[in-house]
Amino acid sequence: MKKTFGLLASLILLGGIVLADSTTGSRCPRMGEDAGDTKSTFINDQIEGISKDLSLDQDQLAKVKTILEDQWEEKVALQERTKRKMGDIQATADEDLKMVLTPEQQTKMDELVKNKPECCPTPWIKCEKCAGMKDGKKRKTSSKYKHRH
To answer: Could you give the dihedral angle defined by the CA atoms of residues 41, 46, 51 and 53, in that order, rounded to the nearest 10 degrees?
Structure first.
């Protein structure tokens, strides 16, 4: 039962953390820039590369720019719809989890979530730097979760 509860809580919490991380602004994780800067950089880099490699004329460049801008806007809209849907799924999972937990367990979980380092995906899965000894016990870690301080 403890294992099932821990797994369920980890999965639900991880979903919320991923959502929160993905909604902390329109930032490009690859480049770390604001979305507006990323859009113009992305489009300009694409146009520069395509033009150079394919020797496009000005008319073709204008059409390519329009295509890339439309593609960008479609992707942004899809990302926003996905964030909203993930939020709905997370809210439902949070409510379902609350029905399983006793009030004491809910209080304890709230405290664990509140004190979770930002760099770790859940209170139960630690990044490499935060993993280690706590209360004499080796904490569960995964190499997938690199430290993000």
So the answer is: 130
**Residue 92 domain flag:** yes
Q: Residue 134: inside a domain, yes or no?
A: no
* Number of structural domains found in the chain: 1
- pLDDT per residue as tens, the chain (149 positions): 555 444 444 444 444 444 444 444 444 444 444 555 788 898 999 999 998 999 999 999 999 999 999 999 999 999 999 999 998 998 898 889 889 999 999 999 888 888 888 888 777 777 777 776 454 455 555 555 454 44
The parent domain of residue 50 ranges over 2-115
Residue 130 lies in a domain: no
Give me the helix-helix angle, 2-22 and 103-114, nearest 10°: 40
Largest CA distance in the chain: 69
Q: Taking the mean position of all CA atoms in its chain, how far away is CA 46?
A: 25
Which residues, at least 6 apart from 146, have a Cβ–Cβ distance to it below 8 Å? 127, 128
Q: Could you tell me if residue 32 is inside a domain?
A: yes
- Cα–Cα distances (Å) from 58 to 43, 47, 55, in that order, read 15, 11, 10
